Structures are given as C-alpha cells and as structure tokens.
## 1
Amino acid sequence: MSRVLITMPVAAAGLRRLEDAGHELDLVERPAPAEFRARLARADAVILRFQALSRQDIEAAGKLRFVARHGVGYDAVDVAALTERGIPLAITPGANAIGVAEHALALLLAVARRVIGHDAGVRAGQWQAALRGPMFELAGKTALIVGAGRIGRATAQRLRAFDMRVLAYDPFLPADAALPQGIEIRTDLAAALAEADVVSLHLPLTDATRGLIDPLALKRGAIVVNTARGGLLDPTRLLAALESGHLTGAGLDVFDPEPPGAADALLRRPEVVLSPHAASLTDASIERMATECATNIIDFFEGRPPRDSIVNLAGIAL
Ligand SMILES: NC(=O)C1=CN([C@@H]2O[C@H](COP(=O)(O)OP(=O)(O)OC[C@H]3O[C@@H](n4cnc5c(N)ncnc54)[C@H](OP(=O)(O)O)[C@@H]3O)[C@@H](O)[C@H]2O)C=CC1
Ligand SMILES: O=C(O)C(=O)CO
C-alpha cells in the first residue's frame, strides 16, 4: 500500500497493525542525516518520534504524502512546508496524556521531598541528611497549570487528589471546556505565576510561547515542573532563580537543546530533578502512541483521513 519510514523504535503492536494493513515498513535505527534524506525520498509516509523534519527534508521527499507524529508536540516539524505541499501532519492526541501527567507528579514529588538527595544520603551512610530543613508539603498549597489541554487537565486532576488548590492559565480555552472539578481559571499569567507555589507547564512551544515563563517571576519558594518543552523557560533566568534560592527547585524532563550540554550548570544544581525527555515513555503510553499513529496512516491511505488528529487540516484539501 505505502512505504512507511520508521527511524526510531516503535512498539510492536503499531508495526503489526501497519503490516496487517499491507504497508511496507522501512525500518532503520537513527540514520545519519544523508541516509535519512535518501530513505525519506522513497517513503510515502514517515513516523516521527523525536526527530525534526525540516523544510529541506520535506523538499527532498518527493513521494511523501503523510507524516505521522508518534506523540503530540510538533515544534520540530516545519508545518508550513508540509502544508505548502498538501501533506497532512497527524499527531496522537491524548495517547500520552496520562504518562506525562504521572511524570509531572513524579518530578514534583521528587523535588518537593528531596528524594534524590535522600536516596544518595542513605546510600552514603549520611542518615542525618533528612534533617536539613523541612520539606515542601503539597496539601493546601496552590498549583498553576499553564496550558489546560489534554496533559494539563490530567495533571490538574492528579494535583487535586493531593488536596492542592489548582489554577489553570490557558488564554485559548473555550468557554464550554470541560475542566476537572474545582479548577480555577486565570486570565492574567503574571498574577497567576506570582500566586502559585507549584507551576507545571503543559503548553506547546511556538514563536509566541518561547521564553514565556520567567522563573524569576514565580512566587518565592515555588517549584517549577517542565514536561512540555525546554524553550518555554529561559535557562539563564532559571539558573539565577535556583542559585539565588528564589525557587525551591525544578523538575525538568525537557531541555533546549536536547540533550543538554555537559557544561550546563543546571545539571549540577542539587534542587533540580532531571529526566531525559522520558515523560511519555510508559508501557501504556508507548503502546497507544504506536497504535494510534499506525491507525492514522492506515486511515489516510484507505481514504479515511483522521481529521481529528491532523494539525494542518485547514491548509490542505482532503
Ligand atoms: N515530555 C514529553 O515527553 C511530552 C511533552 N509534551 C508537550 O506537552 C505539550 C502539551 O501537550 P497536550 O496537552 O497533549 O496538548 P494540547 O494541545 O491538548 O494542550 C495544550 C494547551 O496549551 C494551550 N496553549 C497554547 N498556547 C498557550 C499559551 N500561550 N498559554 C497557555 N496555554 C496555551 C493550547 O490551547 P490551543 O489548543 O487553543 O492552542 C492547549 O489548550 C505538547 O505541545 C508537547 O510540547 C507532550 C507529550 C509528551
Ligand atoms: O508527544 C510529545 O510531544 C513528546 O514530546 C514525546 O513524544
């Protein structure tokens, strides 16, 4: 039916689904840029995990008819170039929402309860380390979700379960949006950042949101959690906020660039907990991303464009 280029591991259930529907898989693990271009030139569709897709890639992809993102963020894809060629870009909305929301909570708790330092202390025989100042209790404090989409809402629901007051800032929220019970909407970002003890980011990285969150504008003593995209937070100001003690700490799954350079001073801050852009990589989320991504490809080539998953639908004739 179609030749599908796949350059990073995708769960077997997704691959099987594609093969059962008659698609040919071109599997190659992390090819060099020249080989990626050469294979892309022969592909009808491509599955993108963390890879970028540039205008030059797209211009070299003569046969390409469909791009399937294994995940939801598409800041690394040149959507304008795809749209000009009439190529749909589909994502897997919601497939990793629970995985990321659980990870945001994991990072938050690890920072709040100094889990990494305690673990190291116990292993090193430093039992008294736990007595170095009180830890940060969540109950009764205020959390702010920036971006109240699929992941933001799943995170808000989980923060409520910790008896936190939860605010949400999302300027594009439709009036009839179904938010988890008890979430308070805020329309003034600066005021909301100054009010919250915990700030968790769940918005896309775009030209408008790059550097949107100034860590020094958060409330003194707050914790910031970023499982969205590294470019949302100014790294210099984040470091300044941590070094000065303005923030209690930060939980970071995403960086700009990825991976961060070995000299990045954030890597040496004890009040920061890090993970390697892994928030969505749970057993269930990996499976859902793979199968939904495969279904998007199958539906497109069988003449049922997955309209709810296509992000550039307005610009292309389907
Ligand atoms: N670490 C990881 O592994 C993962 C990271 N992500 C990141 O998380 C992001 C969110 O994913 P998901 O919840 O599924 O996406 P959604 O599209 O469901 O939610 C994003 C929300 O952010 C809103 N938004 C856009 N601009 C702003 C802004 N300036 N201020 C506040 N809110 C804004 C959007 O509004 P509107 O829809 O109207 O534009 C939308 O409601 C992704 O874009 C991706 O970058 C996602 C999955 C895994
Ligand atoms: O879905 C996303 O946007 C991710 O970052 C993980 O694939």
## 2
Amino acid sequence: MSTIEIPDGSLFGLDNLPYGVFSPANARPRAGVRVADSVIDLHAALRDDAFAAPSLNPFMAEGPARWAAARARITELIMAGELPPGAVHPLREVKLRLPFEVADYVDFYASEHHAANLGRLFRPNAEPLMPNWKHLPVGYHGRAGTVVVSGTGIVRPSGQRKEPDDPVPVFGPSIRLDIEAEVGFVIGVGSPVGTAVPTGAFGDRVFGAVLVNDWSARDLQAWEYVPLGPHLGKSFATSVSPWVVPLAALQAARVPLPGQDPQPLPYLRESEDWGLDIDLAVEWNGEVVSRPPYASMYWSPAQMLAHMTVNGAATRTGDLFASGTVSGPARSQRGAFIELTWGGAEPVTVGGEPRGFLRDGDTVTITATAPGEFGGRIGFGEVTGKILPARAEPFGVDS
Ligand SMILES: O=C(O)/C=C/C(=O)CC(=O)CC(=O)O
Ligand SMILES: [Ca+2]
Ligand SMILES: [Mg+2]
C-alpha cells in the first residue's frame, strides 16, 4: 500500500483534491487527483468505471451525490494509507492533459473595474459602462475547440487591423497581444433545452473551477468587434489550468458579492452567496505584475449560469463558462495588460525593461489560491503559456 506525505501548508491537501487528466511516462492518459506533489490514478485506486476514460466528463456527468462519495472515498484511502501500489505517481513524472472535453465555451465580462477600463480604452467618447451592464452579466460565445491546456505554446495570431487614421486595414501578425486572467466554471450535469437553471441550482450543475487565460489580440479585436463582439481576436487560443478544483473545495472561499445596485431582475437574484475569495497572481516572465482579487467581481458564477440558460438554452457536461477578466480597483490588480499599461502608454517594468504588450518568447503564468476548509489555503495550480512567433505565411494568405 502507498502513503502520501502532505507537508504542512501544502496548497494541495485534503481540503483541495482537484481533478485532472495525466499520462505517466510512456503510458496512456487517465483521470487523477492531485495530493501534495503526487497524482493518484483514480481508476487504479477506486476501481470505478466513471474514471476509465482519459477525460473527467463521465464522472462530472454523474452529479453531486457521486462527486461527494468519490471525494469521501479518496480522502479515506489517503488517510488510511491504503492506496494500491502503482496508483500513486510523482507529479514531476507525469504529463498533464486537458482535463475535460470542452463542450461549449462562454466568456463573461463580470468585473466592473475591467469593464469600465476597457470601455474607456476602446470607446473613449462613450460612458465607460454600457447601459445594460448592471442589469445582466454581459458575455459572448467563444471557441471551445481552441481551449488548450496550460503549457501549450501560443502562436501569435495574424489578422486584420486598422488604426483610426489608416485609410484601409492591413493584414499581419498582431502587435498588441495580451492576456486576460479569469476563473472558469465547468458544467458537470447538463440541462436540457427549454430549462432554465436558477441561481440556487448552481451547486447541482457546476462541478468545479479552473484558471483561464483568454489570450487577446487587441488590435484585431478593436477593428473586428463592432457591432457583434469578440471574434478572431480571441478565438486563436484560450488556456486552462490542468486541475479542476471541485466546488466542494471552495466552500470556505464563498463570500457575498461586493453589492449590486440596481437590484437585478428576480431570475438573477441569489439565494446563497457565490462570490468567491480567490486571489490570483499574474507573472510576466517570472515577475508578478498583478494580483487580481476575484472577490471584487460584480456578478457571481451562479448569476452567469442563470442568465446563460434563462432563454431555454441547453448546457452540456464539459461546458466552460469563464468569468471575464478579473480586475480589482487598484492598478496593481488589473488582469489584462491593456489595462495594466493603459494601452501601452504606462508601461510596467519586466526584466528591467518597460513593457506594454507581449513579445515572442514571453511567458505568462497565472496562479491562484483560496481559503481552504481547515484554515489554510488551497491552490489552483497554474495556467501558463509562451508566445511563439507568428507563422511566416499564415495559412497561405499573403500579408
Ligand atoms: O469592451 C470590449 O469591447 C471588450 C472587452 C473584452 O475584451 C473583455 C472580454 O473578453 C471579456 C472579459 O474578459 O472580461
Ligand atoms: Ca475574456
Ligand atoms: Mg492546505
């Protein structure tokens, strides 16, 4: 039997137990759970067919009673030191995979600070917040097929851009490549077409949370987005962390929202608090440049899900909906570089140099922690990505 030592202060103790998909050296991918610096092979440890697939989807589809039972059983096996030999792998020896098959992907815009800053930057002659913003969680449908796991290289996208004074657009690699630090929520139990998911059912439907980097080409975005919203400027890559932190691990992180005025319509009111006290950190080439506080978000994920389904739209196991960029009120809390550097006009110092947008070879890593159930903290791990040069002749199109 195998035992796992959990050092004091570990961000991956029994109060966390996030799920992922990993491959041991030269072996096929499988579902696992992280404990300290080890990964438990769930199929080997539990002999449960929900974990036979190299994806969390079958297990996530089974619902809260099965999620709770599996968490209890995993805890029991770790505490008793009764994990079968061969079921425990050192984290450093495994490759982490995309943890779930992404069904649909929606990205919200739930930070008031971020929305107001982007309003000022993109629409300097208008009110920073659009009139709808405090009445509904604004969002758009993104591209599920280009959601990639942390560590995947991010090829600089090419596309159209046009500066206000240019007569016509030009085609070429983005020159304003940016990040967006977000938290994503993963649907476990889908809902059929024609059913709205009320805010109170959030915990019955949502399996857990991941970190998201919604890479954004601001020059492509600024030219293309009117009037339908983000498109190719964001669909080239969206990175997610390899660990899905179950909602069960986030109970101690639940906090009231900062406050909503005006009061939203009845279908958006919360019966329970789903604000989350998650502290994010954004590292640019290894230096922390920002610490976005999730607790400052205006709309809760329960409200996002209620809004997303109030028209009868279906949800499916593996749907990912992201919060939108997490930005707090202070400059040092902004979750996108366009805001942090005010469009490049107020650079930040990275590696001793003033920087605005991303260069080829730059690496951005987002991490996060939250209060855990035993008084310590739990970790989300990281979502990281390195910028690779644009393709010389993108897809046969000459610039
Ligand atoms: O205000 C705009 O036109 C654009 C906003 C964004 O790019 C933000 C977005 O993708 C949603 C978010 O991450 O908050
Ligand atoms: Ca976004
Ligand atoms: Mg801990």
